[in-house]
Write a structure and sequence with these properties.
The chain contains 6 helices and 5 strands, in the order αβαββαααββα. By secondary structure, it is of the alpha+beta class. It has a single domain, classed as CBS-domain.
Length: 144
């Protein structure tokens, strides 16, 4: 069974983050520059929220807030769902689906050690299925 650590070993442990007092414009620019859809909001060493494209749409654009002066802390998602590095990807996928989230920080014994997305989990599942298909094909054709 594939674990979150297996994904992080290929993807890396870099996490894009921002301070809670940064403005929505600053966060949006950082996300655009990095080509990502979310930032972990960190105050000191603590995860205090996550800020995603969905937060921009629902809590900034739809409410007509001024993104140049609105701090991330006022519009971020504060109920952050995390997982451990040893979590199986199937359970993470189920949790992400149930909570309707696409970004999940990975927290180990020594703090945050990465972030996974629903796309990361899907790609890992596809790789695992392809490996199974390849194995079965070689087994069947070796029998001939």
């Amino acid at each position: 069974m594939i674990t979150v650590q297996d994904i992080l070993s290929k993807k890396g442990s870099d996490v894009a983050s921002i301070a809670p007092n940064a403005t929505v414009v600053d966060a949006s620019r950082q996300m655009n520059d990095a080509g990502i859809g979310g930032l972990v909001v960190i105050d000191g060493a603590s995860i205090v929220g996550i800020f995603t494209e969905r937060d921009i749409l629902r809590r900034v654009v739809a409410t007509e807030r001024n993104s140049a002066i609105t701090p991330v802390s006022e519009v971020m998602t504060t109920d952050v769902v995390t997982c451990s590095p040893d979590a199986p990807i199937d359970s993470c996928m189920g949790l992400m689906t149930a909570k309707r989230i696409r970004h999940m920080p990975v927290v180990g014994d020594h703090g945050m050690c990465g972030i996974i997305t629903s796309g990361d989990l899907l790609a890992a599942q596809v790789r695992e299925q392809q490996d199974t298909i390849d194995y079965l094909n070689s087994y069947v054709f070796d029998l001939r």
